Amino acid sequence: MVKVTIDPWGSFLVKDYEKLIGNYGLEAFTDSLIKKLPNPNKLMRRKIIFAHTDLIKVVNAIKNKKDFYALTGIMPSLEQIHLGTKLVIENIKYFQNQGAKTYVLVADLEAAATRGLSLEEGRKRALSFHIPAYIALGLNPKKTSFYFQSTNENVKNLGYIFSKKITLNEFRAIYGTTEPGRIMSSLLQAGDILFPQLEKRMPGVIPVGPDQSPHILLSRDIVNRTRSSFNFVLPSGLYNKYTPSLDGGLKMSKSKPESCITIPEDIEKACKKIRRGFSGGRNTLEEHKRLGGMPEKDMAFELLKQHFIEDDKKLQKIHNEYKAGKLMSGDIKDIACKELTKFMKDFNKKLEKAKNIVPSLKFI
Ligand code: TRP
Questions:
Q1: How far is the CA of 145 from the centre of ligand 1 (A)?
Q2: Whose CA is nearest to atom 15 of ligand 1?
Q3: Which of 205, 228, 246, 304 is the 20 to 30 A CA-CA neighbour of 90?
Q4: Which domains does the chain have, with CATH numbers?
């Protein structure tokens, strides 16, 4: 079924999201599915979520007020997170609000096995930055269970047990690599994805970017292969598009710092990057007024759409006025800069507050 290999630790890009759905056995995120979700968030409404696997299980759990969970993890590599992570947290927050048991894990073992980060350093960074950052981005700390991979015996045990259920060739077909650290990390991640069900079998949703989709696939295969011992419910995946690079490239990446905005980031620098970014404006003023701008090609507009404007009507108004040639590309950049400034200031404030509550958090 898998027609392309995806290396989650490489730089996997997506040119055509429709094709990825076909090649990877995902399901399209359709209007009829959106209708079944109570108060869909802006990423759902705006189709920044482009695909899912088996989300109907979670939809039904919400509808019937049955137990379900939402889970995500982060490698504590740098003291910054990228905008793609912000999308994942927004989705986790959505399901948390719908009643999901929520798990956030620190992938310290993965960071050790794939990046050589020591467990001590990983723990320190996660406590001082990543966990507070997740709270600053809106997770309810009282309703979230946090853990480190390295101290979760259940997760580690599942990882070991699952190793019997996949061959090297199958692993290569999914991931395109067979590096030992990556194999261990993938099995461990399947452990993360399924461990909440040790307590109770229930549906769960794992919101991810496209590069993490092999892990969902692997976890689902493992569920099918451990039916007789565990009988887990197949976990659901929810996939967001990448935030494009400010130069118009397919994915924002730290390898191109001049086109990448991270959280946190110096506001002035970020605004400069936005101003230099690829726009949907026309070549001359006359042409722009006559033909109108192209919001779908404009990176500043994309930032507003994916990240900084909640209100659909406000976004639509900007879209329409830009398209009608009433707003210039410079105006869109000004708006993006203003909204980013608001966001970063708010984030910084919340981050400081969240740091103070870390000692009182519940760790599994
Ligand atoms: N592999 C993820 C990353 O690169 C981290 C991670 C570990 C994770 N376990 C997970 C993500 C379970 C989602 C679900 O950041």
A1: 15
A2: 74
A3: 246
A4: 17-242 (3.40.50.620), 257-352 (1.10.240.10)
